[in-house]
Amino acid sequence: FLMERKTRVKINRKEIMVAKLRKSCSCTPQKLKNFLMDFFPVLRWLPKYRFKEYIWGDIMSGLVIGIILVPQAIAYSLLAGLKPIYSLYTSFFANIIYFLMGTSRHVSVGIFSLISLMVGQVVDRELLLAGFDLNDDAPPASGDSSLQNDNLSNTTAFNLTIAGINAECGKECYAIGIATALTFMAGVYQVLMGIFRLGFVSMYLSESVLDGFATGASLTILTAQVKYLIGIKIPRSQGHGMLVITWINIFRNISQANLCDVITSAICIVVLVTAKEIGDRYKHKLKFPLPTELVVIVVATLVSHYGKLNEVYASSVSGAIPTGFIPPKAPEFNLMLRVALDALPLAIVSFVFTVSLSEMFAKKYAYTIRANQEMFAVGFCNIIPSFFHSFATSAALAKTLVKTSTGCQTQISGVISAMVVLLVLLFLAPLFYSLQKCVLACIIIVSLRGALRKFRDVPARYCVNKVDTLVWVVTMSASALVSTEIGLLVGIVFSMLCIIVRTQRPRTALLGQIQDTSFYEDDSEYENLSTVPKVKIFRFEAPLYYANRNYFLKSLYRLTNLDPNLEAARRKKYEKKEKQHLKKGNHKTANGLGIGETTLQLVPKQIDFQALVVDCSSISFLDTTGVNTLKEILKDYKNLNISVLLACCNPSVIDSLQRGGYFGKDFGCMQEMLFYSIHNAVLFAKDQK
After folding, report:
1. pLDDT of amino acid 622
2. 140 neighbors 170 (Cβ within 8 angstroms)
3. What is the pTM of this model?
4. Residue 509: beta bridge partners?
5. Under a CB-based contact definition with an 8 Å cutoff, are residues 375 and 190 in contact?
6. pLDDT tens-digit profile of 232-276?
7. Which CATH architecture has domain 508-569+606-688?
8. Which of 80, 331, 449, 546 is the most exposed place for a label (fewest CB within 10 A)?
9. Residue pair 268/300 in contact by the 8 Å Cβ criterion
10. In this model, does residue 163 exceed pLDDT 70?
11. Is 607 exposed, middle or buried (0-12, 13-18, 19+ CB in 10 A)?
């Protein structure tokens, strides 16, 4: 039977577009109110805030995150190649802006290790191009912000003039200028993506790509911190292969290791790892996580200050951290042009991590987020702080997990965290002067435990899906051995190639009938299936399009053990020879047989089927090449008196076949060529003479 399709109502797209434009361009008080409430979601949920129910959880989680945020912000400044004060600015402004614009109740937006690493790589590259020394312990700029070394000043002044910056700007000034320009451009990209609704870009970053990218970047972060752990002074490597070059330099200079830094690092790592393991084991019994990082920083700072580790043992320390806020300054336009390309992967990674975390926790706690608004929120978390000497931000999984475990209910907790950071900015920052850099490196390395533990999951991942494991390995290797940006690009391209290859060479099978049922399955996978006499049932488990057309035909000919083109050509050849012998009056054929025996000789082996059923249930779409391929096999098999029947086609495939003329001009033969189940097609084939 042939089911009757519903009549489609023609849509006037021009009228719809005009109506949408008229609606979007109109301005009414209600529409303006809705726009403001959509753009600032805080206006919707804050008036409904359940004060007695939510406030204590928000205060507790905000205080805990603030306590964790301060040492992490100071530590991650090493990754970004910037002074700690800028990390604190970043943490403060990001929390405030996301409170106003974010739609997630739980994510913690602020400084993030991977984003800091990507910013730091661009900052280091531009500093090197400008003629600055990348050594962290190089003498700082003087009070008037001029450079110390005359020769360096001349070189740098030339480069800075080209970059559009005043020649009096020193290394620190130029570094934060690069970081703010990069951050501003990343924010602009994110806002533009939100305006044009390009959030679908995140779909191309699979879980395997993101995990591989995070693990590869973690190896790069770990490598960059080793020199602080052991207190050696080596140049900061730049460009491709940074990980290998850095390790070579580390082993070459291992004899210069600072014993004080080595001992301090060993003690800090043992304390931090032990505390983390205890916290993980007893997290259900603890009301809030142990503030281990803060305790380690306070103790280490006191020991370093009163033990005079910098003066006596030449241990590298954080140095002076000013209090208060530096006057705002617009990012330099000329610098934006230099880093415009670098800002694109930064914008995508920042957005993807934020949205994926927001969706994960929204699903867990049964509420919804708006991905497009999240893109605006993250974009403005980059654009606005870039005027206040801050760099790029993103949501961080570790801090978000801590927020939820300590009772967070809304983004009020983010405001509390910002107040803790503000307290440090205004009063407590100078107290961290004597904090050793090796302690900050220990905090960074221990925070990478989650990403580095992904190596333990490789065997289980391999058992689940070999292709996804290969994508993870390729992305991780490229991110670690080449660069983070190239690694991300390689991961995306490689994962898409894997999808293309899997559709180019999909599974194919001949089906057999499950005994005493109307169901059919793969004959090579299941036992006790019965073959259908005179009928071959072929399944192709992929869309049929130009890239897999040849594989479709080869698989069909191989499994049915019949190539209709070769068989037709062979028959024509013998018919031609037979006619030539008959014209000569020879009663023997070309093979020495009698005329009566010729018919048997035309077919070298008997064709064991008279109908071919193509199971189209796994064919999601057809392109023009796919339709022509099916028309081709229909014609070729018809020449051999074999009928081709299609079963289980979806409506889009049927439409493609109709438009391509597969069923003829009037679709009269459609009900004899198209069936809604394999069993119906088999029954029809059996009834044919």
Report:
1. 95
2. yes
3. 0.80
4. 539
5. yes
6. 988 777 778 889 999 999 999 999 999 999 999 999 999 999 988
7. 2-Layer Sandwich (3.30)
8. 546
9. yes
10. no
11. middle
